[in-house]
Amino acid sequence: MSTILDKIDLSSLPKHIAIIMDGNGRWAKSNGKPRIFGHRNGVKSVRTVTEAASKIGIEHLTLYAFSTENWNRPKTEVNALMHLLVETVKKELKTLHKNDIKLEAIGDLKQLPKKTYDALLEGIELTKSNKKMTLNLALNYSSRWEITEATRAIAQKVKNGDIQTDEISADMISQHLTTSKIPDPELLIRTSGEHRVSNYLLWQIAYTEFYFTDIFWPDFGENELYEAILGYQNRERRFGRISEQLD
Ligand code: FPP
């Protein structure tokens, strides 16, 4: 029996997939449960999707776990999410390490609660030499924060006389972003039927293919990931050229 995985061309996978995991709250509501129940089930999807991505050979997976705007949620939900993060990182760390997955995080990490920050740093340190895949958590992250920080750093270099303004290039800006070590995502997935980018990787998604699905994040699993990759592989990426100019 042919599966979705059989239809994927493993020789032309996206190297980097970014995901906006959305719909945990609505999923919980539709099951008559509190929002945190949705987040807990969202963690199951994080595990499933991480395993599936690593299994087929995706090199970088960046998950939007907490935005700078998420602090505006009710305090009980913010606390529960922070707790869930610590719990998940601690619980999953050995499995990540065993599977040769490197944990990374992008965002204003120093502003996270100490317990969350410490758990994250411990995970990053333990897995830093792993090679199979990078699992990058966007935490207390927003693009406007990141671009502002990059602008400040570059302006400081100009002020110090280390660089001239005409040396500032798109490449230099990329090098000052939190994603400087990884390629831009070829595919951005957003679940739950929302069609927005919500301050996520704005610079990096200049040529990214978007894939939107109505499925809520806790229902997004292995097959749903493969469907998204298949959708991506069926598109023609022209980068401003015309079809006839492509191979
Ligand atoms: C969006 O659903 C989800 C979040 C803001 C948090 C995502 C967090 C997790 C999946 C759990 C922890 C993650 C890791 C990496 C361990 P929503 O609450 O916005 O749902 P709604 O739009 O239906 O209200």
Q: Mind telling me the CATH class?
A: Alpha Beta
Percentage of residues assigned to helices: 40-55%
Portion in beta strands: 5-15%
Terminus-to-terminus distance? 32 Å
Tell me which CATH architecture applies here.
Answer: 3-Layer(aba) Sandwich
Enumerate how many helices there are, as a single number.
Answer: 8
Number of domains: 1
Overall radius of gyration: 19 Å
CATH topology: Undecaprenyl pyrophosphate synthetase
Average pLDDT works out at: 96
Ranges with pLDDT <50 over ≥5 residues?
none
CATH superfamily: Decaprenyl diphosphate synthase-like
Heterogens: farnesyl diphosphate
Summarize the structure.
The chain has about 250 residues and is of the alpha/beta class.
Summarize the structure in words.
By secondary structure, this protein is α/β, with parallel strands linked by helices. The protein has a single domain (12-233), classed as 3-Layer(aba) Sandwich (Undecaprenyl pyrophosphate synthetase), CATH 3.40.1180. 43% of the residues lie in helices and 15% in strands. The protein contains eight helices and six strands; from the N terminus they run H-E-H-H-E-H-E-H-E-H-H-E-E-H. The protein has helices at residues 4-7, 24-30, 35-56, 75-98, 114-126, 143-160, 170-175, 222-233; strands spanning 16-20, 60-67, 101-106, 133-141, 187-190, 209-212. The chain has a six-stranded parallel β-sheet with strand order 3-4-2-1-5-6, with helices on both faces. Helix 5 (114-126) links the parallel strand 3 (101-106) and strand 4. Helix 3 runs parallel beside helix 4 and helix 4 runs parallel beside helix 5. The longest helix is centred in the middle third of the chain and has 24 residues, at 75-98. 33% of the residues are buried. Bound molecules: farnesyl diphosphate (FPP).
